[in-house]
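Example: Serine acetyltransferase.
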Amino acid sequence: MINAYYFYKIAHKLYLWKVPLLPSLIKLSIFLLFNSNIPFQCIIGKGTKFGYGGIGVVIHKRCEIGRNCSIGTNVTIGGKSPHYDVPKIGNNVYMATGSKILGPITVGDNVIIGANAVVVKNIPDNCTVAGVPAKIIKNG
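Written out as structure tokens, the predicted fold is:
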């Protein structure tokens, strides 16, 4: 099944090989097909999956996402003014539909982020968070 992650992998490889125009065209096709902004400059780990092909997903170009993550529809991973740094997400993180991860934060490994949660603070490993702003509702 072709989804936004498939296109991202191709564009990212071409970007690493310093191919000039093709990654930008692939990024544009991701936007047109899936209404998503998944830049080829970001780092998305192997085994990561997008729900429903990645519809409505917005990722900042400097974000780092670990391996085996699950990203739902309409998820936003991005910066927060006036900070330069952007989120760094660990391995095996589940980001439910509509969740927002914003600012210079770190999300640990094996974390579950609830639907429509707004994460603006660091999240340790092995937690479940939910709410606006997101709070730890289960630890361990």
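Residues 4-139 form a domain with the UDP N-Acetylglucosamine Acyltransferase; domain 1 fold (CATH 2.160.10.10).
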